[in-house]
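Structure first, sequence second, as always.
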C-alpha cells in the first residue's frame, strides 16, 4: 500500500487565504506565502492552491502569487482556478507549480483533459470534482460550487480517469467546513471505482477523521484547510496519530 498523504489547501481570494463553510461565508485565514512555508516546514506532503474566484471572475490564476509561494516551499505544489487550456498550464508550471487542478473547464470541455495529459503527462493533471447530494445522487457542481450540472459524480470521475487525469480531488460540498468528518461512503465508492489516486476533501475537524477517511474511505490523500490555518491541528502531531492507528503515512 502506498503511504497516505496530508495536503493543506490554500483557498485564495484577492491574494489572501480564505475559508468558508459549504463554500460560502468566507473569512480571512492569513497570508498564503507564510502559510505555505509553514506547512512545508511542518511536514505537509503537498500543498494545494485554489484561486476560488478565478473562474467566476473570468481571469487567470494569480501566477505572481504562485511564484512567490513556490519560492518558499520544497514539496509538490498543485495550482487550480481559472485554468482553461494547455497555455494556462504551461504558465503555472513555469511559475513553480508541479501539478494543475481543473474543474469547471473540464466539465465544459472534457477534451481539455486529454490535451493536458498528452502535453504534460497524467501525473500533472488533477481533476477537482465538487459534489453535493441532491436527494437522488451525488451531483457535480462547477464555478466554485455555485452551479449544479446534472452530471452524476460516479459517471464523471470514471470519464475523467479515462481521459488521462492522474488524480481526483473529491470535495463533498455538504461536508465542506463543517468539521464533522469527510464523506467516507462517497470517497470509498469513488476510490473503488478508479485506479488513480483519490484525494478526499471537505469536513476534516479532528484527527480521527483522517484515520476514518484512510481506513474506511480508502482515500489516498486527505486535504484540509481551516484546521491547519487556525492552528487547531498540528501536521506533525496528526501524522503521529495516524501512524499510531496503523495507517502508513509519508
Amino acid at each position: 500500500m502506498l503511504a497516505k498523504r496530508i495536503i493543506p489547501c490554500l483557498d485564495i481570494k484577492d491574494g489572501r487565504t480564505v475559508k468558508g463553510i459549504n463554500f460560502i461565508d468566507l473569512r480571512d485565514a492569513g497570508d498564503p506565502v507564510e502559510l505555505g512555508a509553514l506547512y512545508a516546514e511542518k511536514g505537509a506532503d503537498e500543498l494545494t492552491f485554489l484561486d476560488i474566484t478565478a473562474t467566476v471572475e473570468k481571469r487567470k490564476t494569480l501566477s505572481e502569487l504562485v511564484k512567490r509561494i513556490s519560492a518558499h516551499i520544497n514539496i509538490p505544489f498543485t495550482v487550480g482556478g481559472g485554468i482553461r487550456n494547455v497555455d494556462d498550464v504551461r504558465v503555472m508550471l513555469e511559475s513553480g507549480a508541479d501539478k494543475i487542478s481543473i474543474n469547471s473547464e473540464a466539465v465544459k470541455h472534457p477534451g481539455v483533459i486529454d490535451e493536458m495529459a498528452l502535453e504534460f503527462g497524467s501525473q500533472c493533471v488533477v481533476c477537482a470534482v465538487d459534489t453535493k447530494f441532491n436527494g437522488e445522487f451525488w451531483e457535480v457542481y462547477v464555478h466554485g460550487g455555485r452551479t449544479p450540472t446534472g452530471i452524476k459524480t460516479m459517471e464523471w470521475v470514471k470519464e475523467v480517469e479515462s481521459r488521462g487525469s492522474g488524480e481526483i480531488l473529491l470535495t463533498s460540498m455538504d461536508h465542506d467546513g463543517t468539521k464533522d468528518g469527510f464523506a467516507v461512503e462517497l470517497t470509498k465508492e469513488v476510490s473503488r471505482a478508479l485506479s488513480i489516486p483519490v484525494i478526499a476533501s471537505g469536513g476534516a475537524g479532528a484527527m480521527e477523521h483522517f484515520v476514518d477517511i484512510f481506513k474506511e474511505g480508502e482515500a489516498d490523500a486527505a486535504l484540509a484547510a481551516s484546521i491547519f490555518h487556525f492552528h487547531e491541528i498540528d501536521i506533525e502531531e496528526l501524522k503521529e496519530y495516524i501512524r499510531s492507528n496503523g495507517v502508513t503515512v509519508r
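Margin note: Residues 113 and 163 are 6 Å apart (CA to CA).
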